[in-house]
C-alpha cells in the first residue's frame, strides 16, 4: 500500500488521480477491517503458531534445529517470528514490495550463506497449515500472498 501510494504520488503529481489509479485505495479500504482482524489474530496467536511450527518441523526431521553439534532452535524461532511479523504487516498494509525489499532479499542471502534452504522450504511450506489451526480461513487467505512470496524468495 505504501509503495503504491508513493508511486501514485509521483505519477499523479500536479493532477488528480484517475479512477483506475485509485482502484487499489478503494480495494484496500474495502478489506481494511478484515486485514486488521487477521493481523490481530496472528499477533495474539504468535507463540502458539511458533510452537506448532516447531512441532511440525521436528516431526519431519528430528534434527531440524541442529547445525552440526550446535542447537539453533532459538535462532530459528527468532527468524520465523520476524518473518511472520513482517509478513503480517505486509498483509495488513497490502504491501508485498516492502516485505520483499525490507526483509526477504536480505534474509535470502543469509539462508543461502548458511545453507538452510531445506529448512526454510520446510518452514514456509508448513506455515499455511499451522496458521489455519489458529486463525480463521479468511485471515489465512489474506496472508497467502505474503506467504507465497516468502516461500518463493527463501527457497
Outline the secondary-structure elements.
Blueprint: H1 2-11, H2 19-60, E1 66-67, E2 70-71, H3 73-93, H4 96-113, H5 117-134, H6 137-154
Antiparallel strand pairs: 1-2
Amino-to-carboxy terminus distance: 25 Å
CATH topology grouping: Globin-like
Q: Order of strands across the widest beta sheet?
A: 1-2
Count of domain modules: 1
Average pLDDT, to the nearest integer?
92
What is the H/E string? HHEEHHHH
Helix content: over 70%
Q: If helices are DSSP runs of H or I spanning 4 or more residues, what is the number of helices? A: 6
> What coarse outline follows from CA principal-axis ratios?
elongated
Family: Belongs to the phycobiliprotein family.
Keywords: Bile pigment, Chromophore
Pfam families: Phycobilisome
Protein name: ApcA1
Overview of the molecule:
This protein is mainly alpha-helical and 155 residues long. It has one domain: Orthogonal Bundle (Globin-like), CATH 1.10.490. Helices cover 82% and strands 3% of the residues. The chain is built from six helices and two strands. It has a two-stranded antiparallel sheet with strand order 1-2. α2 crosses α6, α3 packs antiparallel against α4 and α3 crosses α6. The mean pLDDT is 92.
Amino acid at each position: 500500500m505504501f509503495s503504491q501510494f508513493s508511486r501514485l504520488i509521483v505519477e499523479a503529481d500536479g493532477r488528480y488521480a484517475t479512477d483506475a489509479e485509485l482502484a487499489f485505495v478503494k480495494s484496500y479500504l474495502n478489506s481494511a477491517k478484515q486485514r486488521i482482524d487477521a493481523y490481530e489474530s496472528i499477533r495474539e496467536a504468535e507463540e502458539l503458531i511458533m510452537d506448532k511450527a516447531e512441532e511440525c518441523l521436528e516431526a519431519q526431521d528430528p534434527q531440524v534445529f541442529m547445525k552440526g553439534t550446535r542447537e539453533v532452535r532459538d535462532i530459528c524461532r527468532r527468524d520465523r517470528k520476524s518473518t511472520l511479523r513482517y509478513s503480517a504487516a505486509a498483509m495488513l498494509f497490502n504491501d508485498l514490495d516492502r516485505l520483499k525489499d525490507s526483509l526477504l532479499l536480505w534474509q535470502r542471502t543469509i539462508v543461502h550463506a548458511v545453507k538452510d534452504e531445506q529448512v526454510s522450504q520446510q518452514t514456509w511450506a508448513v506455515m499455511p497449515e499451522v496458521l489455519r489451526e489458529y486463525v480463521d480461513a479468511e485471515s489465512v487467505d489474506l496472508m497467502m500472498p505474503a506467504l507465497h512470496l516468502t516461500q518463493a524468495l527463501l527457497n
